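[retry 2/3] HTH tetR-type domain-containing protein: previous attempt timed out, resubmitting with same input.
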Amino acid sequence: MNERKKKVMAAAHALFVKKGYVATSVQDILEESGISKGTFYNYFLSKNELLISIFEKINSETDERRISMLAGRTVHDKEVFVEQIKVKMEVNKENNLFVLFQGVFVSEDAELKKFVKQHHLTELRWIQRRMIEVFGEKVQPYSTDLAVTLFGLVQNMVHFVVAVEEKLELDVIIGYAMRRVESVVQDVMKTGDQLFDSSILERWMPEKTLYRENKKSVLMRKIGVMQDAGDSDQEELLSFLQDELQAPEPRRHVIEVVLEDVKQNEELKTLIHDFLNE
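[retry 2/3] HTH tetR-type domain-containing protein: success.
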């Protein structure tokens, strides 16, 4: 993305927060960013597309920061999971996401409402996938229930803390919610109690995205299991592979060289090959 387009997005973002999405006109954005109408429509087909681009930029920032937190750590590390949930909320706050969402609801625009709904469901799907990575395949049948429970607990406790003007750190709130969910995990494993089908969120995901996401999740869980079973040298190699596979463009030749030094690597080789060659 070129710097001029970034400047337009930053100007629009500030205006949407200050004036509201509906009250901000394209002309306001032109004046604030110092560009012509022709340049604006060269970058964006509409004000809607501009707002969606801002949302996507915020989501990309969250993804990058979440991935960086896994560097050198296993996917089933609960502390990493807590930190990843926290960083999402921090990024949202930094970007005044709640105010932007309010603007969407006021606008009554069907396209934007659909995007915000997809945003919400995608986050729940991410939590569901991480639940399986953290607690293991055994929780897969209950993973939608667990994701909705954790998301609801965190959101409602944060809203309550704000309402009563208490001072509690985000990681304390999320950590408390995680401990409650751990108790729920133990309970559902004993009782088999299930509310939602575990595939319900998949119906809302683009097929190609879902397919790649599932492959990546299986691969990351396999690496996590091998990290637990291996010695320190093997753990270091596997951590490197995990970090490399999380990169936007994994270096295939580097992965292949490192993989040769990993013990009992046949299944891992197959999973990595499938992931890189889809």
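[retry 2/3] HTH tetR-type domain-containing protein: The chain has a mean pLDDT of 89.
[retry 2/3] clearing retry counter.
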